[in-house]
Design a protein that fits this description.
single chain, alpha+beta, 12-stranded antiparallel beta sheet, 27% helix, 24% strand
Amino acid sequence: MLSAEQLAGRRAVIAGSADLRRLQATLARRATPLLERLPEIPSSKALLTVDGGVCPRDGAALEFDPWSPRRHRCPVCRTNVAGERHDRAWARWQHLWLAERTADLAALAALEGSGDAADRAAALLSAYGERYTDYPNRDNVLGPARLFFSTYLESIWLTGVLAAASLLREAGMLDEQVAEAVSRVADEGAGLIGEFDEGFSNRQTWHNAALAAIAVWFEDEELATRAVEGPTGIIAHLIRGFGTDGMWYEGENYHLFALRGQLLAMGWAEQAGVSLTADPRLAARLAAALRAPALTALPDLTFPARKDSRYGVSLAQPMYLELWEVGLARLGEQGAGIAGWLAELYSAAPPPAQRFDSYLHETGEAAPTGARTRGDLSWWALLEMLPELPPAAEPWRPGSVLLERQGLGILRGEDRYASLECGGYGGGHGHPDRLHLTLHAGGVHWLPDPGAGAYVTRDLFWYRSTLAHNAPRLDGRSQVAGDATCAAFDVSGAWGWIEGEFPPFVRTVVAGPGYLADVVEFSAAESHDVELPWHPSGRIEMLTPGTWVPETLQEEFVERGERFVPASVGSLHLRATEGDRTLNLHLLFEGELLRAAGPGVPGAGPAEFLLARGTGRGVRFFAVLEPGPEARVRGLRASGDVLEIERDGQTDRHVRTDEGWEVTTAGGTVALRGRRRPEVDVARPLIDPHRPLPVRGVALHLYEPPALDGTADGFGEAEPLALDHEDQYRRSEEPYPGPEEFSALALVGWGEGELYVAVAVTTPVPSFRAADAPALLLDNEPDDIHSDGVQLYVRTSAAGPVYG
């Protein structure tokens, strides 16, 4: 990713930098095993399955050892397992690891002049060039691919391969035969990736990076223009995907993944002659994208597991550190504040190495014993980061903040972090968790967002439910997908508040010295069952006198249900204990309190949770949360808009006003304002080439039921729904062959209580699984989806749930 001239300059910079020399030495050490022997290139493409790469005994993800293609060890029971499914799961990581190692070798060759490293990198490039088109384009999940099951993985792999080849070429260390092999791979990759535009997606940032790399390799100006300026190109993703507050619309996990792809794509664009950071507006947007996850980081320097996020992942992972290192090097003065954030991360306790699709540089490395350093990063950082980390102007101390477009309000105070989740649903990775409350205090993540576990295990449906979150739900069902609005946000001294609206719910969180007040209100024209789950960490005990009696909860994943029968009327006092830390939870509401066990945060096993339940046209849950060694709250009272909290003989009075919220304590009255009515700006592409045409059919009332004999007899003159265009085709492997090869025509009619559907499908060779065929164990969907078939989805009201 550097020109010949830039490589010469970089060598001089490295020679004068202790940090860069240390990083170069680390890469040379890691490359030694590859110089001693050629690692195995998988003979098969990767396959995503439920059981591949997973220990059959305890369900743990198997370790990845690049030198053990057919024996795979479980990190929990230490058993070695074997089999084709495990081998093909291993192939996913091996292909990606080899691309990274090839880039390592090429960087060392180009910067040190190592002929051995150049020869080994060339050998790997040649091997893939010879066999790449022999891998089949089938068994895919998200788009066409040869080495993997999804196009985005092919893009990640290809950016590494082309970085290696480009470095060798610019250093004059790539012979013509190897260059031709790389060109064959790049040409085939361009077809696969270029024909599978994913619109506005975190994965498309990687597709853009790969296409820009291919454009640089072939010096293809037209392809470069498409990758940079296209409707779903690099600029569009920077402007729309990361938004005005800098946060990617799918939350921190996908923000960091998309940001890596975006930075790599912008680097390739630079080599194509387009410097995006030269435009102050685009540079400002990139700076905001780099700052956003630092603003929302939890006190333990992990990112909150919002939406489909991995849980408990440290931002001090080398993969993330080098995002800020590269960003700081590119932005210069516009990256103000990043140096302080990096200093904070480098001083943190070292997180264990984790495995990521886009970062396998630490595979096989011993667990770190000291804080991370700049010498722990990858070849990319060696090429781009500053020779020295600039001194921070001031320590990194983020305060309370509202990410307006993301709809995430965060109230910080001392060692406490509370946030309310509003904003956009989050697309396909969104969760039905609008108005979810997160609390981290005293070093304990008391009310976490659990994120999501594996996409191929059944518990994914738990983590994608409202019941798994600290968020309200209606009539025993998960929230209907939709957006919430942050209606108020303000901070005044030691007090702050957030109010979120997700009709028919309003949630208000007020943070002050010593406690957090939380009010969830429901209002509707008709009576409903309203529930509010609480998932405190640690052991939960009830301190209010009363009795727990058995209660059945008709919920998947939930067991051991009980209902609390208090000895007297009034507020309830519970305490959660985690080690030597405690959280006191005080609840006041009309209804019943239940407890049960369900899946805990991913990887932690079952955990107890609470469920407050009320019924009516107006329901209110009033809670006070006290992190700390002792409970000072003695009681709660509520009357209209006035909420009172009795603490050590004194009463704090909370009142909602037209202008905001007022708190009166022994020390005086604090007025919190900040009411707002912003429109939710849900991230969508400027131009979406895959926007479905408004194809409609008309269903007739049928007085007599149709024959239902495999024909359309009896459906009358209903207007058919025709599915016969490319924009209605969800591509996984081959391009759309045309309506003559694949299309459908549907007729719908209705009776007094029936819906009748007839579908005629054109397909060359129908394929149906036998009823007694063994389970495929490919994903979370029914195996019949892997046969030819028809899927029907019904919504009985405009705002109701969808039935499939």
